């Protein structure tokens, strides 16, 4: 082997050693950052622990009033086998921005390349274990969460946090239940009576047909009141007329409407010792030529008014029918909701009765929870097919914010670095994260900033934020932050500090 070959081989060996060394270095120094990463470990939102008999199923009532329903055989192991025996449930909720911040759950959402912030109507995290090993949802017997919420806006969707793909996945909608809500009353379509009667078209006297002169009460037939000098003439279809009837002095004459509109029946009655007779003829109202021209003008005017009323009634009828259909659909939906909420209330009552046998103190608490549910509590109900984090949310973008590049200082004015910083907006159940190292500040609302400094909770209050007098021209701002002590750097203190 010549010298050149030896040098080439040596170079290759050195290169391999460098590659291996580099790889080993990477494996030692690189760490995997968890997607859900609580910024203060000891201040993470705590779980509540429960035990469920997997074969029988069970009901869990969380402190907020949420109700978790587990049917029998709701769990399977990693191989798809139905789990028997006791299963440990770990459950927690995130009902406000402090919970969201301390949990380390990302509250932003990207859609079509646009960055949004979640406004939450309720979020929870549910896990299940058997002998310390995670179990999974049996897709043929799904559990159900009825999540307590103060937000009844139907705009909120249901999202599942996929920690593998590291993104929120839209899972449709939750069902909004207002426990104790009564059914809406559905009325049949209302058809208003038309005040203007349909006018009767006047006809000229036909000289070939007999005329009957009758004096009628002006209020008897509203459709005839507008015509003067009105007479009645036998209808062309009438073939029962007897001329001798005109010679009789009748005791009573009655006029009534006929079956065909515009026709009338005139009845003559004679009741005496010699004659007991009654005849009836079909007649039409008629006018002489001198009265006909005036009468036809009156008729045309009345017909126009009548047709206008008909059109108005048809429009009202159509609107009433549409409302009736809408109310009917709503009634069906609410009936379904009431059926479900009634079932939940029975479950709560049964659960309380069961607890009564075991623990009187726990009973009193659960009675309180049940009563709260019965007093107009709103629940967002959904069945789920995966354990993990579920969120009833609406992605929004702040309207015309002022984008401010922040810097932070301690109470002495010394510059500090924050591990993370978020903007809270009063009466908004969500949080705004730094985006391109800027915070979206709304001048129309009250704001505060929270963050982490050297592992401790840092914040500027709503009042202190207001004193900075930020305006539309503000591009950057130093925020004086307060930092909690090591002793108070826990969930209970931080939540009380911010929420009260």
Write the layout of secondary structure elements.
Blueprint: H1 3-29, E1 48-53, E2 58-61, E3 67-70, E4 75-76, E5 86-93, H2 97-103, E6 108-111, E7 114-130, E8 133-134, E9 136-137, E10 144-149, E11 157-162, E12 167-170, E13 175-178, E14 203-204, E15 211-212, E16 231-234, E17 252-257, E18 264-271, E19 276-287, H3 289-356, H4 360-374, E20 378-383, E21 388-396, E22 402-409, E23 415-416, E24 421-425, E25 431-433, E26 439-441, E27 447-453, E28 456-460, H5 462-466, E29 476-480, E30 482-483, H6 491-499
Parallel strand pairs: 14-19, 22-29
Antiparallel strand pairs: 1-5, 2-3, 3-10, 4-9, 5-7, 6-7, 7-8, 7-21, 10-20, 11-12, 11-21, 13-20, 15-16, 16-19, 17-18, 18-19, 22-23, 22-26, 24-25, 24-27, 27-28, 28-30
Helix pairs in contact: 3-4
Notable characteristics:
500 residues; alpha+beta; Chondroitinase Ac, Chain A, domain 3; six-stranded mixed sheet; 32% strand; elongated
Q: Can you characterise this structure?
A:
The protein has 500 residues and is an alpha+beta fold. The protein folds into 4 domains: 1-31; 44-179 and 377-397, Chondroitinase Ac, Chain A, domain 3 (Sandwich); 206-287, no CATH class; 399-500, Immunoglobulin-like (Sandwich), CATH 2.60.40. The protein has 6 helices and 30 strands. The protein has helices at 3-29, 97-103, 289-356, 360-374, 462-466, 491-499, and strands at residues 48-53, 58-61, 67-70, 75-76, 86-93, 108-111, 114-130, 133-134, 136-137, 144-149, 157-162, 167-170, 175-178, 203-204, 211-212, 231-234, 252-257, 264-271, 276-287, 378-383, 388-396, 402-409, 415-416, 421-425, 431-433, 439-441, 447-453, 456-460, 476-480, 482-483. Strands 1, 5, 6, 7, 8, 11, 12 and 21 form an 8-stranded antiparallel sheet that branches. Strands 14, 15, 16, 17, 18 and 19 form a 6-stranded mixed sheet that branches. The longest helix has 68 residues, at 289-356. The radius of gyration is 42 Å and the shape is elongated. The chain starts with a helix and ends with a helix.
């Amino acid at each position: 082997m010549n010298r050149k070959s030896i040098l080439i081989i040596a170079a290759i060996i050195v290169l391999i050693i460098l590659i291996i060394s580099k790889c080993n270095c990477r494996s030692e120094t690189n760490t995997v950052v968890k997607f859900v990463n609580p910024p203060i470990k000891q201040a993470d939102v705590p779980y509540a622990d429960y035990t469920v008999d997997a074969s029988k199923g069970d009901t869990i009532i969380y402190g907020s009033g949420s109700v978790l329903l587990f049917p029998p055989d709701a769990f399977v192991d990693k191989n798809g086998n139905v789990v028997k025996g006791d299963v440990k449930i770990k459950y927690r909720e995130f009902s406000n921005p402090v919970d969201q911040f301390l949990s380390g759950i990302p509250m932003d959402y990207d859609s079509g390349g646009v960055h949004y912030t979640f406004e939450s109507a309720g979020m929870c995290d549910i896990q299940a274990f058997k002998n310390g090993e995670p179990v999974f949802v049996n897709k043929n017997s799904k559990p159900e969460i009825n999540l307590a919420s103060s937000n009844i806006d139907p705009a909120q969707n249901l999202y599942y946090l996929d920690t593998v793909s590291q993104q929120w996945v839209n899972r449709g909608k939750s069902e909004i239940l207002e426990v104790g809500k009564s059914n809406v009353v559905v009325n049949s379509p209302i058809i208003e009576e038309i005040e203007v009667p349909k006018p009767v078209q006047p006809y000229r006297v036909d000289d070939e047909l007999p005329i009957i002169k009758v004096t009628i009460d002006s209020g008897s037939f509203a459709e005839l009141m507008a015509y003067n000098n009105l007479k009645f003439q036998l209808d062309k279809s009438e073939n029962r007329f007897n001329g001798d009837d005109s010679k009789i002095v009748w005791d009573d004459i009655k006029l009534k409407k006929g079956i065909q509109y515009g026709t009338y029946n005139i009845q003559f009655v004679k009741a005496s010792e010699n004659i007991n007779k009654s005849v009836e003829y079909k007649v039409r109202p008629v006018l002489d030529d001198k009265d006909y021209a005036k009468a036809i003008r009156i008729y045309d005017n009345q017909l126009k008014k009548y047709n206008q009323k008909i059109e108005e009634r048809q429009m009202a009828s159509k609107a009433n029918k549409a409302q009736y259909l809408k109310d009917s659909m709503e009634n069906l939906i609410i009936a379904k909701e009431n059926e479900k909420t009634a079932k939940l209330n029975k479950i709560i009552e049964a659960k309380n009765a069961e607890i009564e046998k075991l623990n009187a103190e726990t009973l009193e608490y659960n009675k309180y929870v049940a009563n709260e549910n019965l007093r107009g509590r709103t629940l967002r109900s959904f069945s789920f097919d995966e354990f993990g984090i579920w969120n009833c949310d609406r992605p929004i973008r702040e309207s015309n914010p002022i984008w401010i590049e922040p810097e932070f200082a301690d109470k002495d004015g010394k510059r500090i670095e924050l591990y993370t910083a978020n903007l809270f907006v009063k009466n908004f159940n969500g949080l705004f994260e730094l985006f391109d190292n800027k915070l979206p500040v709304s001048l129309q609302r009250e704001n505060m900033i929270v963050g982490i400094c050297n592992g401790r909770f840092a914040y500027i209050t709503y009042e202190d934020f207001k004193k900075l007098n930020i305006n539309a021209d503000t591009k950057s701002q130093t925020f004086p932050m307060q930092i909690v002590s090591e002793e108070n750097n826990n969930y209970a203190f931080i939540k009380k500090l911010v929420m009260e």
